[in-house]
Design brief:
Layout lengths: L1 E8 L17 E4 L6 H6 L1 H19 L14 H26 L3 E4 L3 E5 L2 E4 L4 E9 L3 E3 L12 E2 L13 E5 L3 H13 L2 E5 L11 H14 L1 E3 L3 E7 L5 E7 L2 E7 L1 E4 L3 E3 L26 E4 L2 E8 L10 H16 L14 E3 L5 E5 L2 H11 L3 E7 L4 H6 L5 E7 L5 E7 L3 H4 L1 H9 L3 H6 L10 H9 L12
Parallel strand pairs: 1-2, 1-6, 2-3, 6-18, 8-15, 9-10, 9-15, 10-11
Antiparallel strand pairs: 4-5, 5-6, 7-16, 12-13, 13-14, 17-18, 19-20, 20-23, 21-22, 22-23
This protein binds flavin-adenine dinucleotide (FAD) and nicotinamide-adenine-dinucleotide.
Nicotinamide-adenine-dinucleotide (NAD) binds next to helix 4 and strand 19.
Length: about 475
């Protein structure tokens, strides 16, 4: 048995917890998977490294509308893949070697562990680890439905699909969330024939209703979108392709594809850690229960010296949230008398598809319920990209900014953007919400560059017709 001052389970966001304050103290970092975790190896970073070349490929098609005739002569999948993973694998390997070989006080365990008591772990090979402080940053993993054929080698999740050898000619994506929207775009822009089978009647249903509805309409122009459809079975054909049987509104149908991507959500890795052995609380959706400071709970009370962060415990499966939570826990570990609190009030998110989507705060449905409960009026504006000069330049007919605010105070409650660079356009709205800037002050208290696309945000703010007096007015 080895005893440590600090043991961290998970080398994704958990890796950033080893701050200079731990120099000279004994630290264990434990990861049974690839060093660096999901975002680096199989998540945010490689997906966006595929999305960017996909945007270049798609631009050739889109250009014709504006009089620019160009063709994408081809997409070198292997070259793209190898460029991406040459970079990523080197970062993962460098990080692992730094922790394993260069830091005297840090021990790396490349094994899965489980709890045997609140401060004791056992590795898969039977080694016992105890620690004064334990941080659980063990993330989440893809969930597979129990459809027959899920074990075929042609069936992938986001964990494996980015490393395949050939661009598949025909792809079936199961699911209608973030991963389906992003890979649907990548594969179709690269030239695959994409079918997306969604159980419900719309894509991205967790987002604002207007966004979900308008994105679904756009997606149906790009992919063979099968709504209200379940995939009943997958069987391998003699030629190595997959025969899928689907049931939709028109009854049963069949489809032959070369690859199936399952994107039906991710589940926290709580079950594989045997947290029951330590008596930790688990939420109804399977997350490790924590208080606002990141302390793991047992029977509703914080367990001294046990913390959690990121996908294993967070209500948001997003890397910027995991990073924020890691910064809070890193502080709290070394300042027990001055605990910081995680801030989940204004969490933005973006879907890097086509069109791109970004959102922060309440959906319209949530804002209606919220304002009604508080007896205040809701102001709502939808501003089309096409109503601004830059939107004309783009001949844009789909992009929009939707804002929700308290009418009397102009306090922003939610912002939802669909269209070109939505993930960047949203940031001033995140800032306004975080720092309490009202809509009128934001619109008229600063210059907006003409004719930049940001004017669509300015105009959306003005369209809100809130009644507050601007705190600062340049006019
Ligand atoms: C395809 C995809 C795209 C994404 N894109 C984005 C994006 O664009 N923007 C965004 O904000 N978020 C994105 N995300 C989400 C983001 O990747 C996660 O929210 C984030 O990586 C979670 O970090 P974490 O530190 O909690 O867990 P992870 O990074 O998953 O780290 C957990 C680590 O714990 C290890 N582990 C698990 N169980 C054990 C155990 N019992 N013993 C030892 N080790 C264990 C795992 O091997 C893993 O390395 C994406 C996710 C996916 C799958
Ligand atoms: N850009 C980003 O920030 C980004 C990108 C990718 C992933 N992520 C994170 O990773 C998480 C997981 O992504 P995801 O797309 O797998 O999950 P998701 O929760 O976004 O979507 C899951 C989809 O699968 C459907 N589904 C669930 N069970 C099903 C079943 N049995 N059969 C058919 N459909 C089923 C759901 O209705 C939903 O449409 C996301 O929630 C997100 O937090 C973020």
């Amino acid at each position: 048995m080895t005893h440590f001052d600090l043991a961290i389970i998970g080398s994704g966001s958990g890796n950033s917890l080893i701050t200079p304050e731990w120099d000279g103290k004994k630290v264990a970092i434990i990861d049974g998977g690839t060093f660096g975790g999901t975002c680096l190896n199989v998540g945010c970073i490689p997906t966006k490294m595929f999305v960017y070349p996909a945007q270049l490929a798609a631009a050739a098609v889109d250009g014709a509308r504006l009089g620019v005739d160009s063709v994408t002569a081809g997409v070198r999948w292997r070259d793209i893949r190898d460029r991406i993973f040459a970079r990523i694998d080197a970062i993962s390997d460098g990080g692992r070697r730094y922790r394993d070989e260069e830091l005297d006080n840090v021990t790396l365990f490349s094994e899965y562990v489980r709890f045997v008591s609140p401060h004791a772990l056992v590795t898969a090979s039977g080694e016992k680890i105890t620690a004064d402080e334990i941080v659980v940053a063990a993330g989440s993993r893809p969930v597979l439905p129990d459809t027959p054929g899920m074990d075929l080698p042609q069936v992938h999740t986001s964990d494996t699909v980015m490393r395949i050898d050939e661009l598949p000619a025909r792809v079936l994506i199961i699911g209608g969330g973030y991963i389906a929207a992003e890979f649907g775009f990548v594969f179709s822009a690269f030239g695959s024939d994409v079918t997306v089978a969604v159980r419900s009647g719309a894509l991205l249903r967790s987002l604002d209703g207007t966004v979900s509805e308008r994105f679904t309409a756009e997606a149906s122009k790009q992919w063979n979108l099968q709504l209200n459809t379940t995939v009943d079975s997958l069987v391998e054909n003699a030629d190595g392709s997959v025969h899928a049987v689907l049931t939709g509104p028109a009854g049963e149908s069949a489809l032959d594809v070369d690859l199936v991507l399952v994107a039906t959500g991710r589940t926290p890795n709580t079950d594989r850690l045997d947290v029951a052995a330590a008596g930790f609380d688990v939420t109804s959706d399977g997350r490790l229960a924590v208080d606002g400071h990141g302390r793991v709970l047992s029977a509703g009370s914080p367990v001294p010296g046990v913390w959690a962060l990121g996908d294993i415990s967070s209500p948001y499966q997003l890397k910027h949230v995991a990073n924020h939570e890691a910064r809070v826990v890193a502080h709290n570990l070394v300042h027990p008398g001055d605990l910081r609190t995680m801030d989940h009030r204004f969490v933005p998110a973006a879907v890097f598809s086509s069109p791109q989507i970004a959102s922060v705060g309440m959906t319209e449905e949530q804002a209606l319920a919220d304002t009604e409960a508080r007896g205040v009026e809701l102001a709502l504006a939808v501003q089309e990209y096409g109503s601004t000069a830059y939107g004309w330049a783009m001949e844009d007919s789909t992009g929009f900014v939707k804002l929700l605010a308290e009418q009397e105070t102009g306090r922003l409650l939610g912002a939802h953007i669909m269209g070109h660079e939505a993930s960047m356009l949203i940031q001033p709205l995140v800032q306004a919400m975080e720092f309490g800037l009202d809509a009128a002050t934001m619109a008229r208290g600063q210059y907006w560059i003409h004719p930049a696309l940001t004017e669509v945000v300015e105009n959306a703010l003005l369209s809100l017709k809130t009644t507050e007096k601007p705190g600062r007015n340049r006019l």
